[in-house]
Specification:
The structure holds two protein chains of two kinds.
Chain A lengths: L5 H4 L1 H32 L10 H31 L2 H33 L7 H22 L3 H15 L2 H11 L19 H44 L1
Helix pairs in contact in A: 2-8, 3-4, 3-5, 3-6, 3-8, 4-5, 4-8, 5-6, 5-7
Chain B lengths: L9 H41 L12
The chains are: A mainly alpha, B mainly alpha.
């Protein structure tokens, strides 16, 4: 049997940790975003993209975190499904709306970049379509959880959906290699190193870390909310039965 | 120094940043609101259950 993180099996320990960790990570996100935005607007316009290169500094991190949040959702769903950890189920439920928001940001900012650069707001390209599928998976996950009254059954059904949806992550990542796409290939996470100059790589890296920290802080806050919600429901049930 | 002149592309660059700011504001407000709302309700339910208004040390923020 694979041991689940002890952290996830103890809500009290999680609540004590997240009480200070959420604001601390949130403060780190603000500092990273301030530095990233400063460098983003200090970078020269790209020789091909012009000033639209600045959209990359908010679009690419949103796409990264949209995918990362789904990975977190999948891992939490696995732990909830296999080990029946209530906190893992709360973590899965808390990750979905944040992941959906980051994915929506990636789609909207990508569209705003695509119009002047590609001449179109949208194209049914493999990368764009698979990211749209990711957004729809988040929506389906939340809708499924909300549609079933029994929370335990809702959690299990949604966890299975989340695990099935994990197959979309490698499709998104390698879509630009597997199909001829309008979307450009990887320019940061490449075997031969990043294919962009440091003047663009630094603000992108800082903004990526800022988005990651923001997701981390908000995820902790939302998990805390889920824990409070379950405590409230349990206490109200006890009072009603007394 | 930062250069905020997006030229002819301003019609695309600034809406992208505005949408990002709005979505982040929405995520922060919704997440904190969700946590605060349920913390209060949990505290109220707990008070109803025990007949006490005492709040524990972890129940001071979301």
């Amino acid at each position: 049997m694979i041991p689940a993180p002890a952290f996830l099996s103890n809500p009290e320990r999680f609540m004590a940790f997240s009480r200070w960790a959420a604001p601390a990570i949130g403060a780190i996100a603000v500092l990273l975003a301030a530095a990233g935005l400063w460098l983003a607007f200090s970078a020269p316009p790209d020789y091909q993209q012009g000033a639209t290169v600045r959209i990359m500094f908010i679009h690419v991190p949103a796409a990264w975190i949209g995918m990362f949040a789904y990975l977190c959702l999948g891992v939490a769903s696995f732990l909830a499904l296999v080990f029946r950890h209530a906190l893992a189920d709360a973590a899965a439920a808390a990750a979905a709306p944040l992941g959906a928001a980051f994915t929506l940001l990636a789609l909207v900012t990508g569209s705003l970049w695509g119009r002047p650069m590609w001449g179109t707001w949208w194209v049914w390209d493999a990368r764009l379509t698979s990211v749209l599928a990711l957004f729809l998976l988040y929506i389906a996950y939340m809708a499924l959880r909300g549609a079933i009254d029994d929370e335990a059954k809702a959690g299990r059904a949604a966890a299975i959906l989340a695990l099935v949806g994990l197959v979309n992550l490698p499709i998104i990542h390698w879509s630009v290699n597997w199909w001829n796409t309008l979307h450009q290939g990887a320019s940061v996470f490449r075997k031969d190193g990043p294919a962009m100059p440091p003047v663009y790589l630094w603000p992108l890296a800082l903004m990526g870390l800022a988005y990651l920290a923001a997701f981390g802080a908000l995820w902790l806050v939302r998990i805390r909310g889920e824990v409070w919600r379950r405590r409230a429901v349990a206490a109200e049930l006890r009072v009603a039965r007394a | 120094m930062p250069d905020f002149d997006a030229g002819a592309y301003g019609a695309y660059v600034w809406p992208a940043f505005a949408v990002t700011a709005l979505v982040f504001a929405g995520m922060i407000i919704a997440s904190l609101g969700h946590a605060r709302r349920w913390r209060r309700r949990a505290e109220q339910a707990r008070a109803n259950e025990t007949g006490s208004e005492k709040i524990g040390p972890d129940e001071t923020r979301p």
